[in-house]
Amino acid sequence: MTWRDLGAGELRKEHVGQRHTLAGWAARRRDHGGLVFVDLRDATGVCQLVVNPERAQQAAAPAHEIRNEFVLQAEGEVVARSPENVNPDLPTGEVELQVDRLEILSRCPPLPFQLDEEGVDETLRLRYRWIDLRRARLQRNLRLRAQMVSTIRGVMEEAGFLEIETPILFKPTPEGARDFIVPSRLQPGRFFALPQSPQILKQLLVIAGFERYFQIARCFRDEDLRADRVQELTQLDVEMAFPDVELILALMETMMAAVWRECVGIELETPFPRLTYADSMLRYGTDKPDLRFDLEIGDVTEATRGSGFKVFGDAAAVRCLTVPQELSRAELGELEEHAKAWGAKGLAYVVYDENGEPRSPILKFLSEPELEAIRAEPGSTILFGADEPAVVARVLGALREHLGERLGLIPRDTWRFVWITDFPLLDWSEDEQRWTAVHHPFTRPTPESETLLDSDPGSALAVAYDLVGNGEELGGGSLRIHESALQAKVFDVLQLTPEQQRERFGFLLEALQMGAPPHGGIAFGIDRMLMVLAQEQNLRDTIAFPKNQAGVDPMSGAPTRVEEEQLAELGIGVVAED
């Protein structure tokens, strides 16, 4: 049986006078007494069906039964619409199908929400995800995702990279996010982990002689969720032997340019600009700056040394944001609450009115040289952060992003990319009282930093690079350590004992002793790339079947309890939580 011979969205003027059979969903029905109009939707688009009882009496009865999302089959003649009825917003707007035969293939009860309804609760949307996915926006997102992945594969294959799959069941590696653990029935009491990324495996592939590897990889991280973070993610994974950092960055810029060109018709300007990590933190208060708007952070630490305002005079760092608006007391109070939420003790300010006259509770404490150093244009406000450099960066960086949104400073349909380089290799964990890897423990220190591992680990820099787009970290990578002795030294700095090194990474250390070439690579978050490409605010709207913020699937009910018999077979007991 042939359900249809043409897509609903494929009807055009050249089909006028032809007979065609269409099938799809009823997107909308309008009953004008005698005539019934139905907007029929399928994967190709929407067209209008017209059921006229004077033309097709038998089609009139089912036409009056139709409700939204009924599945229909319609056969009839394509006719031209009269000029006054042409719909210029639809590709099929010049024609319609005069129905001679209409069949209801599947019925639909009243929907839990309408496809064009705004503000639907996300839990309800996820509970009925098959309905939610019929929305035009989500249809667009998933089609865009498929096109994006196809484009990525084309670029990587053309560059000589071989796609190789790596295991989903692998060894737990405690560095990084929490692992999802999988019990083994055949090896009682032992567990696999779902991979957080194929990091070690891709290094082994390059050591094995596959000099250019890539994969569209599934990754799993048992971490708390946010609007831009999920537990199951997809990434473009890339690794190569004998790498050149410039080659890696140029290839990724080629890939990004191809994606934006093929998917949304935008030509990106390459090469992308670069910022060191230190410069990015100083000027934007974050290592993932949104460069679509200016509002840079200024450093006035030296200008306020010995200030009569003790908060400035005693602070390790004093920095400021110049807001192009004269803010009210209420607005300043609101911003102070935001600043406190990010760790500030308060929020000092100076407001310049339209005549350029300053007002502030701290003016009486500031000297003329200090006032001259911070002077701003009339009708503007200066916000200050004074604390340790990390705290000031965090607070002013968050305020910068908040103000960018609130004041409408961020242009839409604009994309700005930047490479962040020269990251710290290590970060001190107060909780664990030890050094931890900023990226991962296989990241290569810069040549100048290797000697610092013994004397000053906190000053060591990494040969690492992140690509940031519109304030989102899209990808990150590094050159890797290919010498077993240097890798062992980094493990020592991380306070991994020789026994822990052998237990967790022994096979990698052994491989590094057996002809490991210099290697490096990068990984891009497919979901986050699409979030930026499609200009979505929520990562879950780029994924077909996501979990909610509690890590639960409202549609299927997963995660669910498991039968006692299955747990016993695995040798697992569940301890009930009080």
Question: If you had to describe this structure to a student in words, what would you say it looks like?
Answer:
The chain has 578 residues and is α+β, with helices and mostly antiparallel strands. The protein has helices at 57-65, 122-127, 129-132, 136-158, 199-207, 245-264, 277-284, 310-313, 329-341, 368-374, 389-406, 452-455, 484-493, 498-512, 526-533, 564-570, and strands spanning 19-32, 35-42, 45-51, 71-80, 95-106, 162-163, 180-183, 191-194, 212-220, 232-241, 274-276, 297-299, 317-323, 348-352, 358-359, 380-387, 417-421, 426-429, 434-437, 464-469, 472-479, 519-525. The strands form 5 sheets. An 8-stranded mixed beta sheet has the order 6-9-10-22-21-20-17-11, with helices on both faces.
Draw up the topology in text.
Elements: E1 19-32, E2 35-42, E3 45-51, H1 57-65, E4 71-80, E5 95-106, H2 122-127, H3 129-132, H4 136-158, E6 162-163, E7 180-183, E8 191-194, H5 199-207, E9 212-220, E10 232-241, H6 245-264, E11 274-276, H7 277-284, E12 297-299, H8 310-313, E13 317-323, H9 329-341, E14 348-352, E15 358-359, H10 368-374, E16 380-387, H11 389-406, E17 417-421, E18 426-429, E19 434-437, H12 452-455, E20 464-469, E21 472-479, H13 484-493, H14 498-512, E22 519-525, H15 526-533, H16 564-570
Parallel strand pairs: 3-5, 6-9, 11-17
Antiparallel strand pairs: 1-2, 1-4, 2-3, 4-5, 7-8, 9-10, 10-22, 12-13, 13-16, 14-15, 14-16, 17-20, 18-19, 20-21, 21-22
